[in-house]
Design goal:
Helices cover 30% and strands 20% of the residues. The protein is α/β, with parallel strands linked by helices and 507 residues long. The protein folds into 3 domains: 185 residues, Polyamine Oxidase, Chain A, domain 2; 187 residues, FAD/NAD(P)-binding domain (3-Layer(bba) Sandwich), CATH 3.50.50.60; 89 residues, no CATH class. Bound molecules: flavin-adenine dinucleotide. The site of flavin-adenine dinucleotide (FAD) has 40 residues, from helix 3, strand 3, strand 12 and helix 14. Flavin-adenine dinucleotide binds next to helix 3, strand 3, strand 12 and helix 14.
Protein backbone atom coordinates (compact mmCIF):
# COMPACT_ATOMS: atom_id res chain seq x y z
CA UNK A 1 0.00 0.00 0.00
CA UNK A 2 1.43 3.39 -0.90
CA UNK A 3 1.69 6.23 1.60
CA UNK A 4 -0.52 8.28 -0.70
CA UNK A 5 -3.34 5.81 -0.50
CA UNK A 6 -3.12 5.81 3.30
CA UNK A 7 -3.23 9.61 3.31
CA UNK A 8 -6.61 9.44 1.60
CA UNK A 9 -8.32 7.26 4.19
CA UNK A 10 -11.21 9.27 5.50
CA UNK A 11 -11.18 9.84 9.26
CA UNK A 12 -14.47 10.86 10.80
CA UNK A 13 -14.50 12.18 14.36
CA UNK A 14 -17.86 12.10 16.05
CA UNK A 15 -19.41 12.11 19.46
CA UNK A 16 -19.61 13.91 22.58
CA UNK A 17 -17.20 15.20 25.08
CA UNK A 18 -19.54 17.68 26.62
CA UNK A 19 -22.17 15.01 27.19
CA UNK A 20 -19.74 13.43 29.54
CA UNK A 21 -18.76 16.74 31.05
CA UNK A 22 -17.54 18.04 33.41
CA UNK A 23 -14.16 17.58 31.75
CA UNK A 24 -11.12 18.70 33.68
CA UNK A 25 -9.44 21.08 31.27
CA UNK A 26 -6.33 21.15 33.42
CA UNK A 27 -5.56 17.73 31.95
CA UNK A 28 -4.97 19.33 28.60
CA UNK A 29 -1.39 19.63 27.48
CA UNK A 30 -0.18 23.22 27.33
CA UNK A 31 -0.02 23.28 23.56
CA UNK A 32 -3.73 22.62 23.24
CA UNK A 33 -4.70 25.75 25.18
CA UNK A 34 -6.67 27.91 24.72
CA UNK A 35 -9.86 25.91 25.04
CA UNK A 36 -10.21 23.79 21.92
CA UNK A 37 -13.12 23.66 19.55
CA UNK A 38 -14.69 20.23 19.76
CA UNK A 39 -16.54 19.03 16.77
CA UNK A 40 -19.47 21.41 16.64
CA UNK A 41 -20.18 20.72 20.27
CA UNK A 42 -20.86 23.33 22.86
CA UNK A 43 -19.02 22.55 26.09
CA UNK A 44 -19.90 25.85 27.68
CA UNK A 45 -22.96 24.89 29.65
CA UNK A 46 -21.65 21.74 31.25
CA UNK A 47 -18.35 23.33 32.08
CA UNK A 48 -20.16 26.22 33.66
CA UNK A 49 -22.13 23.78 35.80
CA UNK A 50 -18.88 22.04 36.74
CA UNK A 51 -17.24 25.33 37.61
CA UNK A 52 -20.05 26.19 40.00
CA UNK A 53 -21.67 28.95 37.95
CA UNK A 54 -24.88 30.13 39.56
CA UNK A 55 -27.44 30.39 36.77
CA UNK A 56 -30.19 32.93 37.14
CA UNK A 57 -33.07 30.49 37.07
CA UNK A 58 -36.11 31.90 35.29
CA UNK A 59 -39.57 31.32 36.77
CA UNK A 60 -41.43 28.22 35.61
CA UNK A 61 -43.31 28.66 32.35
CA UNK A 62 -44.67 25.12 32.07
CA UNK A 63 -45.88 22.31 34.32
CA UNK A 64 -45.65 18.55 33.92
CA UNK A 65 -46.10 15.51 36.14
CA UNK A 66 -42.55 14.37 35.78
CA UNK A 67 -39.28 15.29 34.08
CA UNK A 68 -36.78 12.64 33.01
CA UNK A 69 -33.27 14.03 32.60
CA UNK A 70 -31.07 12.05 30.17
CA UNK A 71 -32.16 10.27 27.00
CA UNK A 72 -29.87 7.23 27.11
CA UNK A 73 -31.44 3.80 27.27
CA UNK A 74 -32.33 4.30 30.93
CA UNK A 75 -34.14 7.62 30.38
CA UNK A 76 -35.85 6.32 27.24
CA UNK A 77 -37.04 3.25 29.16
CA UNK A 78 -38.40 5.48 31.92
CA UNK A 79 -40.29 7.53 29.30
CA UNK A 80 -41.66 4.33 27.75
CA UNK A 81 -42.92 3.17 31.14
CA UNK A 82 -44.40 6.58 31.95
CA UNK A 83 -46.45 6.97 28.77
CA UNK A 84 -49.67 7.32 30.75
CA UNK A 85 -48.23 10.29 32.63
CA UNK A 86 -47.48 13.78 31.46
CA UNK A 87 -43.69 13.40 31.18
CA UNK A 88 -41.01 15.62 29.70
CA UNK A 89 -37.75 13.98 28.57
CA UNK A 90 -34.66 16.21 28.32
CA UNK A 91 -31.51 15.10 26.50
CA UNK A 92 -28.49 17.28 26.00
CA UNK A 93 -27.26 15.68 22.78
CA UNK A 94 -29.05 16.16 19.45
CA UNK A 95 -29.76 12.40 19.35
CA UNK A 96 -31.10 9.71 21.68
CA UNK A 97 -29.25 6.70 23.08
CA UNK A 98 -26.27 7.90 25.17
CA UNK A 99 -23.81 5.03 25.36
CA UNK A 100 -26.16 2.73 23.46
CA UNK A 101 -26.17 4.57 20.16
CA UNK A 102 -25.71 3.10 16.70
CA UNK A 103 -24.66 4.84 13.54
CA UNK A 104 -24.73 3.78 9.89
CA UNK A 105 -22.38 3.81 6.95
CA UNK A 106 -24.25 3.72 3.66
CA UNK A 107 -27.07 1.73 5.30
CA UNK A 108 -24.82 -0.62 7.31
CA UNK A 109 -25.22 -0.24 11.08
CA UNK A 110 -22.33 -0.21 13.53
CA UNK A 111 -22.03 0.29 17.28
CA UNK A 112 -20.47 3.37 18.84
CA UNK A 113 -20.86 1.85 22.32
CA UNK A 114 -22.95 -0.91 23.85
CA UNK A 115 -22.58 -4.18 21.92
CA UNK A 116 -24.50 -7.17 23.28
CA UNK A 117 -26.68 -8.48 26.09
CA UNK A 118 -27.17 -11.93 27.57
CA UNK A 119 -30.32 -13.96 27.96
CA UNK A 120 -29.63 -14.05 31.69
CA UNK A 121 -30.24 -10.29 31.78
CA UNK A 122 -34.03 -10.50 31.74
CA UNK A 123 -34.72 -6.80 32.13
CA UNK A 124 -33.05 -6.08 28.78
CA UNK A 125 -33.75 -9.36 27.00
CA UNK A 126 -37.48 -9.37 27.71
CA UNK A 127 -37.82 -5.63 27.25
CA UNK A 128 -36.27 -5.93 23.78
CA UNK A 129 -38.94 -8.44 22.86
CA UNK A 130 -41.64 -6.21 24.34
CA UNK A 131 -40.60 -3.34 22.08
CA UNK A 132 -40.61 -5.63 19.04
CA UNK A 133 -36.92 -6.47 18.73
CA UNK A 134 -36.25 -10.21 18.63
CA UNK A 135 -32.74 -10.72 20.08
CA UNK A 136 -30.42 -12.50 17.61
CA UNK A 137 -28.03 -15.12 19.00
CA UNK A 138 -24.26 -14.61 18.75
CA UNK A 139 -23.50 -18.32 19.29
CA UNK A 140 -19.79 -17.85 19.59
CA UNK A 141 -17.13 -17.77 22.26
CA UNK A 142 -14.60 -14.96 22.51
CA UNK A 143 -11.37 -15.47 20.59
CA UNK A 144 -7.92 -13.94 21.11
CA UNK A 145 -5.22 -12.86 18.66
CA UNK A 146 -1.72 -13.22 20.10
CA UNK A 147 1.49 -12.96 18.07
CA UNK A 148 -0.54 -12.91 14.87
CA UNK A 149 -2.31 -16.15 15.72
CA UNK A 150 -6.07 -16.38 16.02
CA UNK A 151 -7.11 -18.56 18.96
CA UNK A 152 -10.84 -19.37 19.04
CA UNK A 153 -12.60 -20.30 22.31
CA UNK A 154 -9.92 -18.61 24.40
CA UNK A 155 -10.96 -19.85 27.84
CA UNK A 156 -11.99 -23.38 26.89
CA UNK A 157 -10.07 -25.48 24.34
CA UNK A 158 -8.19 -22.36 23.21
CA UNK A 159 -6.02 -22.57 26.33
CA UNK A 160 -4.14 -25.46 24.74
CA UNK A 161 -3.39 -23.38 21.65
CA UNK A 162 -2.10 -20.16 23.21
CA UNK A 163 1.21 -19.38 21.45
CA UNK A 164 3.14 -19.27 24.71
CA UNK A 165 5.69 -21.65 26.30
CA UNK A 166 4.06 -24.72 27.94
CA UNK A 167 4.61 -23.37 31.48
CA UNK A 168 2.59 -20.25 30.62
CA UNK A 169 -0.23 -22.31 29.09
CA UNK A 170 -0.28 -24.45 32.23
CA UNK A 171 -0.44 -21.24 34.29
CA UNK A 172 -3.56 -20.15 32.38
CA UNK A 173 -5.19 -23.54 32.99
CA UNK A 174 -4.34 -23.63 36.70
CA UNK A 175 -5.67 -20.10 37.09
CA UNK A 176 -8.94 -21.03 35.43
CA UNK A 177 -9.33 -24.16 37.57
CA UNK A 178 -8.80 -22.24 40.79
CA UNK A 179 -11.09 -19.38 39.85
CA UNK A 180 -13.87 -21.74 38.78
CA UNK A 181 -13.70 -23.40 42.20
CA UNK A 182 -14.49 -20.15 44.09
CA UNK A 183 -17.93 -19.91 45.70
CA UNK A 184 -18.96 -16.44 44.54
CA UNK A 185 -22.46 -16.64 45.95
CA UNK A 186 -21.42 -17.24 49.55
CA UNK A 187 -18.35 -15.01 49.40
CA UNK A 188 -20.06 -12.22 47.42
CA UNK A 189 -19.60 -9.29 49.79
CA UNK A 190 -16.05 -10.21 50.72
CA UNK A 191 -15.07 -10.63 47.05
CA UNK A 192 -16.71 -7.35 46.07
CA UNK A 193 -14.41 -5.49 48.43
CA UNK A 194 -11.03 -6.81 47.30
CA UNK A 195 -9.17 -6.18 44.04
CA UNK A 196 -9.04 -8.91 41.42
CA UNK A 197 -5.24 -8.44 41.19
CA UNK A 198 -5.02 -10.34 44.53
CA UNK A 199 -6.11 -13.46 42.64
CA UNK A 200 -3.58 -13.04 39.84
CA UNK A 201 -0.51 -13.26 42.05
CA UNK A 202 1.73 -16.27 41.47
CA UNK A 203 0.58 -16.84 37.87
CA UNK A 204 2.51 -16.04 34.69
CA UNK A 205 2.46 -12.34 33.84
CA UNK A 206 0.62 -13.16 30.59
CA UNK A 207 -2.49 -14.11 32.61
CA UNK A 208 -2.58 -10.68 34.23
CA UNK A 209 -1.92 -9.04 30.86
CA UNK A 210 -4.92 -10.83 29.40
CA UNK A 211 -7.22 -9.59 32.19
CA UNK A 212 -5.74 -6.09 32.17
CA UNK A 213 -6.83 -5.97 28.53
CA UNK A 214 -10.25 -7.53 29.10
CA UNK A 215 -11.30 -5.54 32.20
CA UNK A 216 -11.00 -1.99 30.79
CA UNK A 217 -13.13 -2.89 27.79
CA UNK A 218 -15.88 -4.52 29.83
CA UNK A 219 -15.95 -2.67 33.13
CA UNK A 220 -13.45 0.18 32.79
CA UNK A 221 -10.70 -1.12 35.07
CA UNK A 222 -7.48 -3.11 35.15
CA UNK A 223 -7.22 -5.86 37.77
CA UNK A 224 -5.95 -3.55 40.55
CA UNK A 225 -9.11 -1.46 40.29
CA UNK A 226 -11.56 -4.29 39.65
CA UNK A 227 -13.81 -5.80 42.31
CA UNK A 228 -12.73 -9.46 42.39
CA UNK A 229 -16.28 -10.73 42.50
CA UNK A 230 -17.11 -9.35 39.08
CA UNK A 231 -14.08 -10.77 37.29
CA UNK A 232 -14.39 -14.16 38.99
CA UNK A 233 -18.03 -14.31 37.97
CA UNK A 234 -17.00 -13.43 34.44
CA UNK A 235 -14.45 -16.23 34.11
CA UNK A 236 -16.89 -18.69 35.62
CA UNK A 237 -19.21 -17.68 32.79
CA UNK A 238 -16.87 -17.48 29.78
CA UNK A 239 -14.84 -20.50 30.95
CA UNK A 240 -17.79 -22.80 31.53
CA UNK A 241 -18.76 -25.68 29.23
CA UNK A 242 -21.83 -23.82 27.98
CA UNK A 243 -21.45 -21.29 25.17
CA UNK A 244 -22.36 -17.86 26.67
CA UNK A 245 -25.90 -16.76 25.81
CA UNK A 246 -25.00 -13.50 24.05
CA UNK A 247 -27.54 -11.72 21.84
CA UNK A 248 -27.45 -8.56 19.77
CA UNK A 249 -28.47 -6.81 16.53
CA UNK A 250 -26.42 -5.17 13.77
CA UNK A 251 -25.06 -2.01 15.39
CA UNK A 252 -25.32 -3.50 18.89
CA UNK A 253 -27.66 -2.40 21.65
CA UNK A 254 -28.08 1.01 20.08
CA UNK A 255 -30.84 -0.84 18.23
CA UNK A 256 -32.84 -0.72 21.47
CA UNK A 257 -32.49 3.04 21.92
CA UNK A 258 -33.34 3.53 18.27
CA UNK A 259 -36.49 1.44 18.61
CA UNK A 260 -37.56 3.21 21.80
CA UNK A 261 -37.17 6.59 20.12
CA UNK A 262 -39.15 5.34 17.10
CA UNK A 263 -42.00 4.23 19.38
CA UNK A 264 -42.09 7.36 21.52
CA UNK A 265 -41.38 10.22 19.09
CA UNK A 266 -44.51 9.94 16.93
CA UNK A 267 -46.67 10.15 20.05
CA UNK A 268 -44.70 12.54 22.25
CA UNK A 269 -42.52 14.68 19.97
CA UNK A 270 -43.40 17.83 21.92
CA UNK A 271 -42.44 16.20 25.22
CA UNK A 272 -39.09 14.80 24.08
CA UNK A 273 -36.55 17.57 23.86
CA UNK A 274 -33.12 16.81 22.42
CA UNK A 275 -30.43 19.48 22.58
CA UNK A 276 -31.75 20.43 26.02
CA UNK A 277 -29.12 20.50 28.78
CA UNK A 278 -30.44 20.48 32.30
CA UNK A 279 -28.50 22.86 34.54
CA UNK A 280 -30.45 22.81 37.80
CA UNK A 281 -32.93 20.59 39.63
CA UNK A 282 -34.26 22.43 42.65
CA UNK A 283 -36.54 20.41 44.93
CA UNK A 284 -39.20 22.29 46.89
CA UNK A 285 -41.87 21.08 49.29
CA UNK A 286 -44.65 20.68 46.75
CA UNK A 287 -42.81 20.59 43.46
CA UNK A 288 -39.41 20.49 41.81
CA UNK A 289 -38.15 23.20 39.48
CA UNK A 290 -36.05 21.94 36.59
CA UNK A 291 -34.10 24.44 34.52
CA UNK A 292 -32.57 23.57 31.16
CA UNK A 293 -30.76 25.35 28.38
CA UNK A 294 -32.09 24.93 24.87
CA UNK A 295 -30.34 26.91 22.19
CA UNK A 296 -29.48 30.14 23.96
CA UNK A 297 -32.56 30.07 26.16
CA UNK A 298 -32.90 28.98 29.79
CA UNK A 299 -36.31 27.50 30.56
CA UNK A 300 -37.80 26.29 33.83
CA UNK A 301 -40.55 23.72 34.29
CA UNK A 302 -42.32 22.88 37.55
CA UNK A 303 -43.01 19.18 38.14
CA UNK A 304 -44.14 16.81 40.85
CA UNK A 305 -41.23 14.41 40.40
CA UNK A 306 -37.92 14.05 38.56
CA UNK A 307 -36.02 11.01 37.36
CA UNK A 308 -32.31 11.66 36.92
CA UNK A 309 -31.13 9.25 34.21
CA UNK A 310 -27.79 11.06 33.85
CA UNK A 311 -24.49 9.67 35.13
CA UNK A 312 -23.79 10.58 38.73
CA UNK A 313 -20.78 12.81 38.08
CA UNK A 314 -23.21 15.16 36.34
CA UNK A 315 -26.22 14.42 38.53
CA UNK A 316 -24.50 15.51 41.74
CA UNK A 317 -23.69 18.90 40.23
CA UNK A 318 -27.23 19.54 39.06
CA UNK A 319 -29.47 18.30 41.86
CA UNK A 320 -29.60 20.73 44.74
CA UNK A 321 -30.02 19.62 48.34
CA UNK A 322 -28.47 16.16 47.95
CA UNK A 323 -27.52 14.76 51.36
CA UNK A 324 -23.75 15.06 51.78
CA UNK A 325 -23.22 11.32 52.15
CA UNK A 326 -25.12 10.64 48.95
CA UNK A 327 -23.25 13.32 47.04
CA UNK A 328 -19.96 11.85 48.33
CA UNK A 329 -21.01 8.37 47.21
CA UNK A 330 -21.78 9.73 43.73
CA UNK A 331 -18.41 11.47 43.72
CA UNK A 332 -16.64 8.18 44.41
CA UNK A 333 -17.88 6.60 41.18
CA UNK A 334 -15.06 6.84 38.63
CA UNK A 335 -15.49 6.89 34.85
CA UNK A 336 -13.08 6.16 32.02
CA UNK A 337 -12.76 7.95 28.69
CA UNK A 338 -13.63 5.50 25.97
CA UNK A 339 -13.33 6.08 22.23
CA UNK A 340 -14.71 3.48 19.83
CA UNK A 341 -13.14 3.17 16.39
CA UNK A 342 -15.02 1.64 13.49
CA UNK A 343 -12.92 0.38 10.60
CA UNK A 344 -15.13 0.24 7.55
CA UNK A 345 -13.89 -2.07 4.79
CA UNK A 346 -15.53 -2.58 1.42
CA UNK A 347 -14.21 -6.14 1.25
CA UNK A 348 -14.14 -9.03 3.76
CA UNK A 349 -11.18 -8.68 6.13
CA UNK A 350 -12.25 -10.54 9.24
CA UNK A 351 -15.39 -12.58 9.95
CA UNK A 352 -14.00 -15.43 12.07
CA UNK A 353 -15.21 -14.58 15.58
CA UNK A 354 -17.72 -12.10 17.02
CA UNK A 355 -15.57 -10.63 19.80
CA UNK A 356 -11.80 -10.98 19.44
CA UNK A 357 -9.34 -9.93 22.15
CA UNK A 358 -6.01 -8.36 21.18
CA UNK A 359 -3.77 -7.79 24.22
CA UNK A 360 -0.81 -5.47 23.64
CA UNK A 361 -2.47 -3.08 21.17
CA UNK A 362 -4.05 0.38 21.28
CA UNK A 363 -7.44 -1.33 21.28
CA UNK A 364 -8.55 -4.17 23.52
CA UNK A 365 -10.91 -6.11 21.25
CA UNK A 366 -13.03 -5.78 18.18
CA UNK A 367 -16.42 -7.09 17.09
CA UNK A 368 -17.94 -7.80 13.69
CA UNK A 369 -20.82 -5.35 13.26
CA UNK A 370 -23.19 -7.60 11.28
CA UNK A 371 -22.20 -10.91 12.92
CA UNK A 372 -25.74 -11.95 13.87
CA UNK A 373 -27.20 -11.43 10.38
CA UNK A 374 -24.27 -12.52 8.24
CA UNK A 375 -25.66 -16.05 7.77
CA UNK A 376 -29.26 -15.09 7.19
CA UNK A 377 -30.64 -16.22 3.84
CA UNK A 378 -30.23 -13.55 1.20
CA UNK A 379 -27.88 -11.41 3.31
CA UNK A 380 -24.82 -10.08 1.56
CA UNK A 381 -22.14 -8.28 3.51
CA UNK A 382 -21.71 -4.94 1.76
CA UNK A 383 -19.20 -3.57 4.24
CA UNK A 384 -17.10 -5.52 6.71
CA UNK A 385 -17.28 -3.11 9.66
CA UNK A 386 -15.06 -3.92 12.62
CA UNK A 387 -15.79 -2.07 15.85
CA UNK A 388 -12.57 -1.61 17.85
CA UNK A 389 -12.82 -0.76 21.54
CA UNK A 390 -10.11 1.56 22.82
CA UNK A 391 -10.75 2.27 26.53
CA UNK A 392 -8.34 4.81 28.05
CA UNK A 393 -6.96 5.62 31.48
CA UNK A 394 -8.70 8.37 33.44
CA UNK A 395 -5.59 10.56 33.31
CA UNK A 396 -5.55 10.48 29.49
CA UNK A 397 -9.03 12.00 29.14
CA UNK A 398 -7.64 15.27 27.79
CA UNK A 399 -6.52 13.58 24.58
CA UNK A 400 -10.14 13.36 23.49
CA UNK A 401 -10.68 17.09 23.74
CA UNK A 402 -9.02 18.00 20.49
CA UNK A 403 -9.90 16.66 17.11
CA UNK A 404 -6.21 16.24 16.22
CA UNK A 405 -5.33 14.02 19.16
CA UNK A 406 -8.59 12.10 18.78
CA UNK A 407 -7.79 11.43 15.12
CA UNK A 408 -4.35 10.23 16.20
CA UNK A 409 -5.97 7.61 18.44
CA UNK A 410 -7.96 6.39 15.43
CA UNK A 411 -4.81 6.27 13.30
CA UNK A 412 -3.01 4.25 16.00
CA UNK A 413 -5.86 1.78 16.18
CA UNK A 414 -5.72 1.35 12.41
CA UNK A 415 -1.93 0.96 12.51
CA UNK A 416 -2.16 -1.78 15.15
CA UNK A 417 -5.00 -3.53 13.38
CA UNK A 418 -3.07 -3.62 10.11
CA UNK A 419 -0.25 -5.45 11.88
CA UNK A 420 -2.51 -7.77 13.83
CA UNK A 421 -2.69 -10.89 11.69
CA UNK A 422 -1.69 -12.00 8.21
CA UNK A 423 -4.24 -10.43 5.86
CA UNK A 424 -5.16 -7.48 8.09
CA UNK A 425 -3.02 -4.95 6.23
CA UNK A 426 -5.94 -3.65 4.20
CA UNK A 427 -7.07 -0.05 3.81
CA UNK A 428 -10.54 0.76 5.11
CA UNK A 429 -12.77 3.07 3.11
CA UNK A 430 -13.38 5.00 6.29
CA UNK A 431 -12.17 5.15 9.88
CA UNK A 432 -14.81 6.41 12.25
CA UNK A 433 -14.03 7.38 15.84
CA UNK A 434 -16.70 8.12 18.42
CA UNK A 435 -15.34 9.75 21.56
CA UNK A 436 -16.81 9.82 25.02
CA UNK A 437 -15.02 11.50 27.90
CA UNK A 438 -16.72 9.69 30.81
CA UNK A 439 -18.30 6.69 29.15
CA UNK A 440 -18.05 3.72 31.45
CA UNK A 441 -18.00 3.66 35.21
CA UNK A 442 -15.24 1.59 36.76
CA UNK A 443 -16.29 -1.50 38.71
CA UNK A 444 -13.98 -0.74 41.61
CA UNK A 445 -13.85 -2.72 44.88
CA UNK A 446 -16.76 -1.83 47.17
CA UNK A 447 -18.72 0.06 44.51
CA UNK A 448 -21.54 -2.46 44.19
CA UNK A 449 -22.11 -3.28 47.85
CA UNK A 450 -21.34 0.07 49.48
CA UNK A 451 -21.35 3.04 47.10
CA UNK A 452 -24.15 2.39 44.62
CA UNK A 453 -26.87 1.66 47.22
CA UNK A 454 -26.16 5.07 48.77
CA UNK A 455 -25.96 6.85 45.43
CA UNK A 456 -29.41 5.66 44.32
CA UNK A 457 -31.28 6.44 47.53
CA UNK A 458 -34.43 8.35 46.51
CA UNK A 459 -35.01 11.92 47.67
CA UNK A 460 -38.52 13.13 48.39
CA UNK A 461 -39.34 13.92 44.75
CA UNK A 462 -36.10 13.12 42.92
CA UNK A 463 -35.30 9.54 41.85
CA UNK A 464 -32.17 8.05 40.38
CA UNK A 465 -32.02 5.91 37.24
CA UNK A 466 -28.95 5.35 34.96
CA UNK A 467 -26.89 2.18 34.91
CA UNK A 468 -24.43 3.64 37.42
CA UNK A 469 -27.11 3.36 40.10
CA UNK A 470 -27.07 -0.42 40.00
CA UNK A 471 -23.91 -2.35 39.22
CA UNK A 472 -21.81 -4.35 39.52
CA UNK A 473 -21.02 -3.43 35.90
CA UNK A 474 -22.17 -0.80 33.45
CA UNK A 475 -24.71 -2.59 31.27
CA UNK A 476 -27.73 -1.70 29.24
CA UNK A 477 -29.64 -4.23 31.32
CA UNK A 478 -28.85 -2.34 34.51
CA UNK A 479 -29.83 0.95 32.87
CA UNK A 480 -33.24 -0.62 32.29
CA UNK A 481 -33.36 -2.11 35.82
CA UNK A 482 -32.57 1.34 37.21
CA UNK A 483 -35.31 2.92 35.09
CA UNK A 484 -37.90 0.41 36.31
CA UNK A 485 -37.00 1.02 39.94
CA UNK A 486 -36.97 4.81 39.56
CA UNK A 487 -40.32 4.74 37.73
CA UNK A 488 -41.82 2.61 40.51
CA UNK A 489 -40.52 5.03 43.13
CA UNK A 490 -41.77 8.05 41.16
CA UNK A 491 -45.24 6.59 40.53
CA UNK A 492 -45.58 5.84 44.22
CA UNK A 493 -44.80 9.49 44.96
CA UNK A 494 -47.06 10.78 42.17
CA UNK A 495 -49.85 8.81 43.84
CA UNK A 496 -49.36 11.07 46.86
CA UNK A 497 -47.54 8.52 49.01
CA UNK A 498 -44.27 9.24 50.85
CA UNK A 499 -41.02 8.38 49.06
CA UNK A 500 -40.06 4.71 49.10
CA UNK A 501 -36.66 3.92 50.55
CA UNK A 502 -34.62 1.43 48.52
CA UNK A 503 -37.65 -0.01 46.78
CA UNK A 504 -35.35 -2.02 44.45
CA UNK A 505 -36.82 -4.13 41.68
CA UNK A 506 -35.00 -7.31 40.76
CA UNK A 507 -33.41 -7.48 37.33
C1 LIG B 1 -17.77 1.47 24.51
C2 LIG B 1 -18.86 0.87 25.35
C3 LIG B 1 -19.21 -0.46 25.18
C4 LIG B 1 -20.23 -1.02 25.94
N1 LIG B 1 -20.62 -2.31 25.73
C5 LIG B 1 -21.69 -2.81 26.38
C6 LIG B 1 -22.22 -4.08 26.06
O1 LIG B 1 -21.70 -4.79 25.20
N2 LIG B 1 -23.31 -4.52 26.75
C7 LIG B 1 -23.92 -3.76 27.70
O2 LIG B 1 -24.93 -4.19 28.26
N3 LIG B 1 -23.45 -2.53 28.02
C8 LIG B 1 -22.36 -2.05 27.38
N4 LIG B 1 -21.89 -0.80 27.67
C9 LIG B 1 -22.55 -0.05 28.75
C10 LIG B 1 -23.88 0.55 28.27
O3 LIG B 1 -23.68 1.22 27.06
C11 LIG B 1 -24.40 1.51 29.31
O4 LIG B 1 -24.46 0.87 30.55
C12 LIG B 1 -25.80 2.03 28.98
O5 LIG B 1 -25.90 2.44 27.64
C13 LIG B 1 -26.09 3.18 29.94
O6 LIG B 1 -27.31 3.77 29.64
P1 LIG B 1 -27.85 4.93 30.57
O7 LIG B 1 -29.06 5.47 29.95
O8 LIG B 1 -27.92 4.40 31.96
O9 LIG B 1 -26.69 6.03 30.59
P2 LIG B 1 -26.09 6.94 29.42
O10 LIG B 1 -26.00 6.16 28.18
O11 LIG B 1 -24.87 7.56 30.00
O12 LIG B 1 -27.20 8.07 29.19
C14 LIG B 1 -27.22 9.29 29.90
C15 LIG B 1 -27.77 10.35 28.97
O13 LIG B 1 -27.87 11.58 29.70
C16 LIG B 1 -27.51 12.63 28.83
N5 LIG B 1 -27.13 13.79 29.66
C17 LIG B 1 -26.00 13.97 30.37
N6 LIG B 1 -26.02 15.15 31.01
C18 LIG B 1 -27.19 15.73 30.71
C19 LIG B 1 -27.81 16.97 31.10
N7 LIG B 1 -27.20 17.83 31.92
N8 LIG B 1 -29.04 17.25 30.60
C20 LIG B 1 -29.66 16.37 29.77
N9 LIG B 1 -29.11 15.19 29.37
C21 LIG B 1 -27.91 14.88 29.85
C22 LIG B 1 -26.37 12.05 28.02
O14 LIG B 1 -26.14 12.77 26.84
C23 LIG B 1 -26.87 10.64 27.78
O15 LIG B 1 -27.62 10.53 26.59
C24 LIG B 1 -20.88 -0.23 26.92
C25 LIG B 1 -20.51 1.11 27.10
C26 LIG B 1 -19.51 1.66 26.33
C27 LIG B 1 -19.14 3.10 26.52
Amino acid sequence: MSTNRRDFIKYVVAGSIAARCPVDLSLLAAETAPRPEVDGEDNRICHQVRDGKIFTLPPATARHDIVIVGGGVSGLTAAYLLQSHDFLLLEKEPHWGGNAYLMEHDGSAFATGSAFLTKSEPAAFNFAKEIGLEPLPVQDRDATIIQGEWIPNTWTDGLDRLPYPPTVREGFKKFKKEILAIDVVNRGKELDNVPFSNFLKGYPVEVKQWWDNYGPSNWGATSENTAARLAIDELQDIGSDTVPDFYTWPGGLGAMSKRLAEILLPKFADRMQAGATTVAVVPGKKEVQVTYMQGAELKTVAVKAVIMATPKFITRRIVQGLPEKQSDAMHQIRYIPYPVVNLIFDKPVFNKSYDTWCPGNTFTDFIVADWVVRNQPGYQQKYNILTCYAPMKEEDRGYLLTEGSTRKIAANVLRDFQKLFPGSNVDPVEVHIYRRGHALYMSTPGLYTTIQPLAREPMDRVFFANTDSEGPESTTNKGIVAARRAVKEAEHRLAGKPALKHAGVAG
